[in-house]
Design brief:
Low-confidence stretches: none
CATH class: Alpha Beta
Number of domains: 1
Radius of gyration: 16 Å
CATH superfamily: P-loop containing nucleotide triphosphate hydrolases
Distance between the termini: 12 Å
Structural class: alpha/beta
Helix content: 40-55%
Bound molecules: thymidine-5'-phosphate
Number of strands: 5
Shape: globular
Mean pLDDT: 95
Amino acid sequence: MKPLFIVLEGPDASGKSTQLKLLSERFTALGIPHITTREPGGTQIGQDLRRILLDPRRSMRPLTELFLMVADRHEHVETVIRPALREGKWVISSRYTLSTLAYQGYGRGMDLKLLRELNELATSGLDPDYVFLLDLPPQVAYERTRGRDRFEGEGLAFFTQVRAAYLSLIRSVPRGYVIDATKTPEEVCREILAHLPLPG
Ligand code: TMP
């Protein structure tokens, strides 16, 4: 079976890291070779970029932020995601191209066409096989994350915008699913697994 590239999207505190862990445990039990990874920060360079990007004491021009996200993605795709898929490993990533459209596009008001072109350039057109949007009401996301990093410092209006963006964007993603992230982690994991073609 061709290895699958699976992406989890959603605001901070929607449980993406918890799901990475639960899915990984499940895949191990099923004997599926896989890696879990994230953006920004899935490579060594990415870890440095992530520190710069999320530092709440740092302010940054929107275009600078965009270039750093795209640089992180390019490095991630070429040195982590593609090699893993080539070796037959499934890849589960917390965040990918949809994050840029939601945060830089709808959140920061940058041109979606430009963002899609940069995503295409950074990934050479590598699209995920499945995208799961862990959806939370903005108020819940905001309360759970207040002050955690530079993005969470943006306030409730920003969360509201990003949520609406995600819900609209996911509709045009092939095999893109909205998952209610207010449910327990186990329920969320079960729902995700139910969409996947698992061996056995
Ligand atoms: P997280 O990895 O803890 O979810 O945080 C990463 C932050 O970076 C999150 O607030 C969303 C933001 N982000 C963007 O703005 N654009 C992107 O393309 C990506 C990958 C993340």
